[in-house]
C-alpha cells in the first residue's frame, strides 16, 4: 500500500485528507505539525504551507531535509484558486505540486495519482 504523510494543523482539513485518501486506497500517517523529522517512511508528503509561527518555505525545507527523496504537495489557503499546480509557485517552494484551499476532491486525487500513481 502506498503511504502518505500529512502535516496539517487544522483538525477538519486533516480529517478530510485522511478520509479522501483512505477511501482512494492510500495508507495515511498524520505527523505532528512541529516535528519535521517524522520517522515514518512514505511515498508522498502533503504539507500545509501557511502555519502560524512557521515560515512556509522554511517549513518545507525542514521537511525536505528529513525526507530528502520523498515528493511533496503543498496545500494552502494562501494560494489563489486556479494556480498552476506545477508552475512557478511549486518550483519556488521546491515541491511537485501546489493546491489551493479549500481543497477539491478531484484536484487532490489527480495530484496524488500524478506523483505516486494509483494505490495497489
Question: What's this entry about, in short?
Answer:
The protein is an alpha/beta fold.
Chart the SSEs and their pairings.
Blueprint: E1 3-7, H1 11-23, E2 27-30, E3 44-48, H2 56-66, E4 72-76, H3 88-93, E5 97-100, H4 105-116
Description:
This protein is α/β, with parallel strands linked by helices and 120 residues long. The protein has a single domain (3-115), classed as Rossmann fold (3-Layer(aba) Sandwich), CATH 3.40.50. The chain contains four helices and five strands. The protein has a five-stranded parallel β-sheet, sandwiched between helices.
Features:
single chain; 120 residues; alpha/beta; Rossmann fold
Low-confidence stretches: none
How many strand elements? 5
Give a quick account of the main beta sheet: strands, pairing sense, barrel closure.
5 strands, parallel
The CATH superfamily turns out to be: Response regulator
Mean pLDDT: 84
Tell me the domain tally.
1
> What's the arrangement of strands in the largest beta sheet?
2-1-3-4-5
Proportion of beta-strand residues: 15-25%
Amino acid at each position: 500500500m502506498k503511504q502518505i504523510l500529512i502535516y496539517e494543523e487544522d483538525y477538519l482539513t486533516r480529517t478530510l485528507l485522511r478520509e479522501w485518501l483512505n477511501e482512494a486506497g492510500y495508507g495515511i500517517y498524520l505527523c505532528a505539525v512541529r516535528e519535521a523529522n517524522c520517522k515514518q517512511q512514505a511515498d508522498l508528503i502533503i504539507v500545509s504551507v501557511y502555519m502560524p509561527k512557521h515560515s512556509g518555505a522554511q517549513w518545507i525545507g525542514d521537511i525536505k531535509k528529513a525526507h530528502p527523496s520523498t515528493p511533496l504537495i503543498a496545500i494552502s489557503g494562501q494560494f489563489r484558486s486556479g494556480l498552476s499546480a506545477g508552475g512557478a509557485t511549486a518550483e519556488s517552494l521546491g515541491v511537485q505540486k501546489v493546491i489551493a484551499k479549500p481543497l477539491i476532491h478531484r484536484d487532490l486525487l489527480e495530484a496524488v495519482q500524478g506523483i505516486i500513481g494509483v494505490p495497489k
